[in-house]
Each structure stands twice: as structure tokens, then as C-alpha cells.
Amino acid sequence: RITVLGSVNMDLVATTERLPVPGETIFGGSFAQSPGGKGSNQAIAAAKSGGEVEFLGAVGDDTFALELRETLVLNDVGTELLREVEGPSGVAFITVDQSGENSIIVVGGANATVTDLSAEELAAIENASTLLCQFEIPIETVTAAAKHARAKGTIVMLNPSPMQPIPTELLECVDVLVLNEIEADQIGDDGLAGVPHVVITRGSSGATYRGPQGVEHKEPAMPVEAIDTTGAGDAFAGALAVAWNQGPEQALRWACAAGALATTVRGASPSLPSDEQIEAALTL
Ligand code: ADP
User: This protein's superkingdom (predicted)?
Assistant: First the structure.
């Protein structure tokens, strides 16, 4: 079983001809509301790509909370430990202009309240085979969860996104670091040195793996007609967690297929592929 500890947000997406300047009001074209957040997206990605998944995180007491919980449930993600707290759920205000340029405001809301872990949550982490985390909830909580997982033999997979410096005490507990090229450059080779398994996603160039004793593997991207890369990284991370027990090479193959398929459909969570879709794409 995979336990995902992370964020869940409602994405509010407006399209405009151009991004507004300070003080300006402009008309937008379309508007869409869709469940997102890296934690929730990766949990759904893992569940759809064949994993048994449980989500640790928090929603607020607003109307968004109902839909956010429902989306996890509908995608077979376990929500027994999803907290409901007073106040707003996490939201992301996203503006996308005609050229595809965007500006984003994320308000943590309920996600920011995940500052401690209950005995029940710690038990869920230690009973899981893998803990998958990102940086959209307080980093201290991620560190505490990773330490507990490490002590109990649960594999710790970290997607350090959105990027912030990784505390040494957290990095020491990470078994698998999954990050994109930009994040990898920001951390630098020295920052990645002590981590046993490092997986770097490289967009349309696929992904690379660096393991213990200098083992390396390069997985080419699956050729697809990409229309929207939103969610590709989350699809990759969730699928990687599911396939990790088959070894890094197989896991990268599975995750690259998931990431590629996610780029062929618009949006984040609707674009996450199922295990049948991944298998079909790999046997083509
Ligand atoms: P992020 O969205 O986090 O920056 P990437 O852009 O590296 O992540 O995408 C994650 C994975 O999705 C890549 O490793 C790759 O396997 C797949 N992917 C992304 N873009 C494409 C593409 N244009 N064609 C094929 N696969 C892609």
C-alpha cells in the first residue's frame, strides 16, 4: 500500500488574452474549476495506475471540500484519514493567457494546518510499503513523516515540488527523489549526492535514473502528441511509486508511459491514465 501525504486544492482556472497588470480589471474568456494539488493528483495517479492508495491531508469546511473528497473517493483513493478542518480548503487561482503563459496564486488553507501527525496517521505510514510526499504542506510535517517511515522500513519517495531547500534531516531519510530537470539543477549534484535513488524527469526527453554504486539508466519518452503537460509530473510520480517494486528500469518505463499519456489530455486529474491505458500504450 502507498500512503500519500500532501496537498489537495481546488484549481480555479481563467483564460485571458493577456495577464492583467497591477490594479487592472480585464475580461476573461473561459473558466474551469477542477480538483488539484500535488498530493491529491499523485494519490489519484497512483490509484489509477494500479496502486492501493491512502491519502493523508486536509480539506476545509467549505463547499470545495465536498468535491475534493469526492474526487479522491471516485478514484479509489482511501480517505479514511482525510482531515476536515475549520476554514477554507486549499485553492489555486490560475490565469492562463493566449500564449500559454500563466500566473498562479496558491492559498494553502487547510493544507497549511497539517502541522502534526496523529498516532493513527503515523500507523498508516508505518503500515505502508511506500510513503510519497511533496512540498505543498508544511515541510516540518514531511520531515516528521519521512523520519517515521525510515525508522519503520517504509520506502520514502519525495517529489520536492514546489522547490524549496531540502533540510538535511529530511534528505537523509529519502530513498527515492523524483524531480524535474529545473529542480535538479536548483539542488545541484552535491545536494543529490547522499540519496540512494534519484529519478529526474526531462519532459519530452523522458527520464533518467541514478542508483547506488553508479548504476545509471536512461528511459526515453514515449512518443505522443502532447497537448497539455499539466499533470505529467504528478502522473509520473504516482505511477513510479506503484511500479517501484519491479525495479527502477521497469518503474521508469511505467512512469514515462503514464507521464506521456497525461500530456495527451487537457487538465490535471482528468488526464491521469489508468493501468489498462498504460499497459496498452506500452504494448503498442
Ligand atoms: P514536470 O511537469 O514536473 O516538469 P516533466 O515535464 O519532466 O515534469 O514530465 C514528467 C514526465 O512526463 C517526463 O519524464 C516524461 O516521461 C513525460 N512527458 C512530459 N512531457 C512529455 C512529452 N511532450 N512527450 C512525452 N512524454 C512527456
Answer: Bacteria
